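Final report, results section. Input specification for complex C-07:
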Amino acid sequence: MAREWWVGQHLNLGPKLKKEFYCVGAKKLAQELLGKILISVVDNSFLCGRIVETEAYLGKKDPASHSYQGKITPRNSIMYEEAGLIYVYMIYGMHWCFNIVANKKGVPEAVFIRALEPLEGIEIMKRNNPLAKSIRYLTNGPSRWTKSFGIDKRFLGLPIYGNQIFIVKEKHPPSFKIKKTKRIGIDYAQEAKDWLLRFYIEDNPFVSGS
DNA sequence: CTCACGATTAGA
DNA sequence: CTAATCGTGAGA
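Structure output:
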C-alpha cells in the first residue's frame, strides 16, 4: 500500500438503515451492503468500518448454505427468522463468522460479511486482535474483522438495525466498482462452488486475499 | 454416546 | 503447505 489513505477520512454519515433495507434477498443485499458503514458501540467502545467484501448464501437451493434443502438445526435456526437479524457461528473451533439474515421469515438467506475497511476505533481493534501484523490484517478477512470488533456468540440474533450494532450509509459515498467472483472456501458445494456470489469493492486494499 | 469436519487463519 | 481447536450435526 502506497500510503495510509484511510486515515483522517471525513465521514458524513446518514441515518441508520432500517429493518426493511435487509429484506431484499441475499444476492441483492450482498451488493447493497458494499460501501456501507458498520458501527458497533458495544463494551464502551465505538468501532466503525466500511463493508468492502460480502458473499450471498441462497438458502434452501444453495448447497453451500447451512440451510440447504431446508435443513434446520439449533445453530442455523436464526436464518429462518426475519431479515436484519445477525447469524453468528463459530468455525474451526476458534473463529467467528458474521452474517445478516436477508429475506422474510421462513426464507433462510443470509449475507456473509467477509471484510471491512477500518475507519474508527483502530486502537481498540488492535487490542482485540493483537496478533494482526498491520492495520490491514485487522479487518481483511471474515474472522479477522470479527476478532477485531469483538464479535462472538453474544451477537447471535441481535438486530443489525438496533443500538449495539448497526449500519449506516455515507451521505456522499465514494464511487466504486463491484467485482464478482465465486465464493471462498466452499469447494464441497457441488455446482454452487462456481456461482458468482462473492462481491467486493474493486481495488480496495482490505478485501481478503489481496 | 462417538466422531468427522468446517463460509479460517497463522505460521513454517 | 499444515496445524490449530472445538462446537456442531449426523449417526449408532
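The longest helix of chain A spans residues 142-149. Residues 1-8 of chain A have pLDDT under 50 and may be disordered. This concludes the modelling results for the funded period.
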